[in-house]
Amino acid sequence: MPVALVIEPDPRERALLASHVRRVRGVSAITAGSLEEAGTVMDIDPPDILITRWALPDGDGVQAIARARRLHREPTCVVFVLDEDAAPPAAMPSDPGVHVLHRPISARQIRKLLERTTRETLDRQPLLSPAEYLQLACMGGHSAVVQCSRDGLQLGEIFVHEGEIWAANDEHGDGVAAFRRLVRGGSLARLRRPEEAPPSRNVQGHWEYLLLEAARREDEETTGRHSLHPAPLDDSEVSRQVDQLLSAAARAVLRRDLRAAAESFQAAAALRPNDKVIKHNLERLRGLGYTSQGES
Fold it and tell me: What residues form DSSP beta bridges with 216?
């Protein structure tokens, strides 16, 4: 789910803008009253959308964008709020992703702008396999919805709740059978944050076992022979450090910061160079242009 950060010094205006944002389906809102407060908020939950008053008590809109870039990444959409009839300042950047709204701002204006932005953001989100997204979400202990497709057709969804594969459904049914159909080779996925409580649980078992078992069954169906899979790694200091790095990669993927995810995977690969999961994710990220050929 895209996150919109509203930076507005006036508490009433801030609450009103946040209310408008939250009425847009698929968008969540966080708020700040100053540039300094916004920096703290961005560090906790990096925004996809920035809605800010141009003139702030401790800076201006350009500084707000710079803060977002320095801490994390550039928002896909920036909305500058100006007073009624005010001309855009000369320092305001001119870019297709930059928009200007004059007060008073209606819920309809916000809805039209953000609905278009969220569609464009979803179109730009990179596609990975369902298994890759599930690994990252589960290793990081996150909640997420993995939307699966094949050849452009939507197949169904897999729900992850606090790091556990919780439920799955497709057009043929639900439960473990649906999960296995959705993670088959050739499927691609997009990730979204859950908008509500997860559905009733219909998939049981540890996520590693579920993925390995699905892969084993698919391999037997396609090759007619039993597959061997690596045993789980033991608990050691290296394993602890790798787990921390993979959790960081999971958080980065959930906020669609694939460059940061690549950095975490590369650090994990330096500690565990023969790990097939890490190597596979690095290969996928390299294919998307986020790591160089010379990096492991």
Answer: none
d(CA 121, CA 117): 6
Q: Considering the entire predicted model, what is its pTM?
A: 0.44
Residue 160 banded pLDDT, cuts 50, 70, 90:
very high
Same structural domain, 115 and 142: no
Domain boundary among 229, 256, 273: 229
Residue 153: which domain range?
Answer: 126-229
**Residues 107, 16: Cα–Cα separation, whole Å:** 9
Same domain, 182 and 204: yes
Q: Are 174 and 268 members of one domain?
A: no
Of 68, 95, 124, the one marking the end of a domain is: 124
Provide the domain count of the chain: 3
Q: How far is CA 207 from the centre of its chain?
A: 20
CA dihedral 237, 242, 244, 245 (to 10 degrees): 150
Tell me the mean pLDDT in the region 102-127: 71
Residue 78: exposure state from Cβ atoms within 10 A (0-12, 13-18, ≥19): buried
Judge whether residue 226 has pLDDT over 70. Answer: no
Which of 38-42, 87-91, 246-250 shows the lowest mean pLDDT across its residues? 87-91
* Angstrom distance (rounded) from CA 122 to CA 191: 9
